[in-house]
Amino acid sequence: MERCGAILRLLISIYLVNYVNGQLISGNVLQILQRTTGFSKFAQLVVRAQLTRLYESPTSLTLFAFNDTAYNNLPYKERNVIDSYSVKDLADYIKFCTIPGNRLQTSAILDNQYVRSSDANVYGTRLTSGEMRDNLQLRSMDSNGDKLFINRKYRSFTTSSGSFGPVKFYVNGVEISEGTNRDISATNGVVHGLNGVMRKTSQSTAYGWIQEPEDSIQRFTQFTDLMSYLHTFENINDLSSPDKITTFFVPNDNAMQKIPLTQLNRLRNDPMELQRILQAHYIPNRAVFTNCISHNEGATNAKGLPITFRKPSGYNVYVNSDGVSAAIIEGNITVSNGVVHIVDQLLGFVYNNIREQIQQESTKFEQMINLGTETVKNSLVQPSGVTVFVPLDSAFQKVANIRWANLNSNQTLVDMVLRLHILQPNNMITISSLPGLSGYESRMYRQTLYSNERLTIYNERNETWVQGGNVKARVIRPDIKTVNGMVHIIDSLLGIPYLDLPMLICSDVWLLRTYDYMRRVGLKNYLTDRRFTAEKCSFEIYGYPQNYGSAVTQNTGSQSSQCSNCYMPQYQNSYPCNSALCANTNTGGDYCKQQQYANQQVCMQCNGGGTSQCPSTYISYCSNPANANVSPCNAYPCNMLNGMNTGSQSTSAYDLGFCGTTAVACDFTVFVPNSSAIDYFSVTNNGYRVMRDTPRFQWLFKRLILPGRLYIEKIGNGNHQMKMMNGELVTLTKNNDRDVRIYFGGASSNVIHMDEGATNGVIHIIDQLLFVNEDLTRDVSSARLVTFSLWLLLGTIFIARWLLRFMR
């Protein structure tokens, strides 16, 4: 019997050496590190720490190893700390990244799981979901048995087509790598790559850490002094107990110094109020890391009131608890009972009035208020019901080069801008109450002090936006309570457009495809406001954003269904198998390897771009005007790249040149198809034919461009005829502000966003191109353009009307 058991163990070991979970095994954990691309630094550290025997031994373990990119992206000081570790300290750090006695796969991870410390016997087996609990604490192999907190999150992104996103996994707030660099099975365990470098868990509890911070320049003496006036320490015990998991937001001394001494003295004498404030500062029973939360995600503080996180793109992470919004200025400090985040405000304590809050948030807006009328100033000191959208100081920099927008001397302009940021009394809005994934179609309106003009407020793409005076601004910090109202912090100045039409279009990631094609068909220069220094879209400098891929191939199931038969020879040379739509299926053959298709967007994006299927050499080669008449640059789609990366007028025969002068701009209204509209059009038979014919595709875009400015909100309901840039008549039908369509022949399109202003016009976003079958054969050889003299006249009339508007 013993002999049979030995044979069985041998067979199992042979199986593990060759195949585990469908993945070929290439050795033990150390060999995995040494043989897998991206782990060379961590493998070197294991050897230097003299831990080779541990990771070659048959003992089961789970290793979280940072990848080379994560190490190289560390600031020099932090890299130097790792490189300067003694052998003993380095070994302790690497053991900190290791869970002994199990093979933890991501498939077994749930969000915030928990294995009780008493379940030590669990470590001898592979963890199963049945053995998991909420708030997973896994103890590492280091000398202290430090806890690791593991999270599983569904990351959703919102588009006009719905929400989508991957499942991501985190350990101590650091993302576990996606794809082949996680769940790497070895003969003696599992390796997970990390996209960041974990900091060791502090042995202190959350409250103990703020009393004696480790390696932090932050100090919290004023907060701990204030809490010492509590009569009961129940909540402090929650933060001090190693057995109670918590997320603790703590204001540093700089934050506390913002509070007037008289207000602090009042708090010291009110233990009940102090208790409520302390409860606003922590989340019980959860360790919440900033990387693991989504924009607008909610939780519950110790008082049972909502806490909301905000992660606006390019800004800090913010937390709003009990009426106070604070920035997390240093976060993700892992302690023995959870995580600590340092914030710049005392949460739960409202003591400023509107004017005092503005002084703290925006120096330039406060200076602008000082230039305002007494009526505007008085509106801010009403006893209640005051709501102000406060632009950051950086918002004023955006309009610094707008010559006609002098906010120092133009009293009329100052008054208009101020009033656009202030709502009518008792017309408040709580941003956090907006539906999280509602989109523009669920927008809300509020009346401003400026001629009762409306602000439009809505959530879209995991952000909150406010649009007023034809300018769209991102809401950075909402719902800041004051003693007489509410403040919302925004990133742009309402009422003064600061981007011209091309830059306005390309600034929206969901319009990038349209911008890309508009410049390729020679329209970018024509729509440029020449009164400013020419700009380039950020993606022309830094490359396409990560989520620029085709909506057709990524967000729907259309590709798999349309391309399902492409593996059969009889279909490979017919549409869509011979098109870029099916290029990623590996069924349509060598489509993307052919020179003439190398620059099609799907071919550039397939398999991440830059592979043998997607040669990128043609893109840079054909972008040089000198190669315009050389194969493959003289054929579609490469012929659309001519001059696209130059700062001057394109050499393409189809470029329309510039409209306007450095003194007077041509104004346009552009109905901009979103990227999905372009994608869907490109995979139709007719779209495929039109987009191969540059003048014909240009004609379709001209059908969407109206000379002059048309603000949809300003026109009445009914039918409106528009004579477009190509001389054709397009009908706009407005039933109400949520039902607007444009028509040409039998084609129609919904206006899904309206009235976003540029320095030289206005854009409305639509969901379809206006294509009719006659476009395949119509004569598009002569472009019926409005003459420059007429543009000059239109521009002069507009400027005169604009000036009169502010002289009233």
From TrEMBL:
The FAS1 domain covers: 26-198, 207-347, 352-494, 637-770
Give the transmembrane region(s): 785-804
Record has Cell membrane as a keyword: no
Is the keyword Transmembrane assigned to this protein?
A: yes
UniProt cross-references to Pfam families, sorted A to Z: Fasciclin (PF02469)
Q: Looking at the record's lineage, which domain of life comes first?
A: Eukaryota
Output the Gene Ontology cellular-component terms: extracellular space
Q: Which UniProt keywords apply?
A: Membrane, Transmembrane, Transmembrane helix
Provide the protein name: FAS1 domain-containing protein
